[in-house]
Amino acid sequence: MKLLISFTFIIIICALMNSLTSVPVTEANDGLTAIVERNLADYTWCRIWVTDSNLNYIAGNTKDHYCRGDDFNFTLPAGTTTYFVFAHVVGSWEEDKKRGPYNGNACLNIHGSVDIWKFSDLELKYCFYKII
After folding, report:
1. Average pLDDT for residues 59-85, to the nearest whole number?
2. Beta-carbon neighbour count of residue 79 at 10 Å?
3. Could you tell me how far CA 57 lies from the centroid of its own chain?
4. In the CATH hierarchy, which fold is given to the domain comprising 33-131?
5. Sequence-ordered strand ranges (E) for 2-44
């Protein structure tokens, strides 16, 4: 009888240990999003791109685009944990601008004109409805 109780006890302990260690593992992200609101002056062109922590291109524009109107919405590859967002304005004497590092969703705004432009972080609440 003692042997049967000990064997049952060992089976229950093993089952409990297995259930405690079988926690599902998720990826680093389920597709982070970087949104850039485009508010440059009319007829201004820009390029926005995203790099990983090693500054390797992972998303964004590879060519210049008109930078007034609809937002750029970049979904980053699964597994991206840290990233930067860059901006370039065609014809500007200003250097390209880099923002980050980011570890979650990001909301940015590019505004101004060819001569003077800003690339700013915004609170997520300004882009939240766009990320959902």
Report:
1. 91
2. 12
3. 13
4. Immunoglobulin-like (2.60.40)
5. 33-40
